[in-house]
Amino acid sequence: MKHRILIPALALGLSALAFPANAACYADYKAKKDNPLKLHYGVMKLPNSACNSPNAAASAIAPRLAAAGWTLLNIVSLFDEGGLNGRKANAGPYFLRF
């Protein structure tokens, strides 16, 4: 009887390891506009597929910024929800804007 309970419990535990929770992913970045020169620091929510590397994040961020006339300068960091509060004041109006 213990095997009937143990095997499904073990399978459930292993599946939880194989499929991590869908934690939200964010990036902070720097961007610019020319004529006249404007710079901003911002925070953007990203799809999980863009959180694997700064290059993947840049590929997701650059087009969203370009649609508003901004050019991505660099990705500062990638982080989860735990890092949002510390960046909100610095990002100001560009906190989760794009």
Structure, explained:
Keywords: Signal. Residues 1-23 form the signal peptide. The chain is of the alpha+beta class and 98 residues long. The protein has one domain (23-94). 39% of the residues lie in helices and 28% in strands. Strands 2-1-3 form a three-stranded antiparallel β-sheet, with helices on both faces. A hairpin with a 4-residue loop joins strand 1 (25-33) and strand 2 (38-46). It is globular and about 40 Å long. The N and C termini lie far apart (55 Å). 15% of the residues are buried. The model is unreliable at 5-20 (pLDDT under 50).
Give a quick set of tags describing it.
3 helices; alpha+beta; globular; signal; 28% strand; 98 residues
Helix content: 25-40%
What's the overall geometry? globular
Strand content: 25-35%
Across the major sheet, the strand order is 2-1-3
User: Cα distance, first to last residue?
Assistant: 55 Å
- The tally of structural domains comes to 1
Rg for CA atoms: 19 Å
Mean model confidence by pLDDT:
83
Classify the secondary structure makeup into a structural class: alpha+beta
Number of helices: 3
Residue windows where pLDDT falls under 50 for at least 5 positions: 5-20
* Beta-strand segment tally: 3
Q: Could you give a short account of the major beta sheet?
A: 3 strands, antiparallel
> Topology as H/E string?
HEEHEH
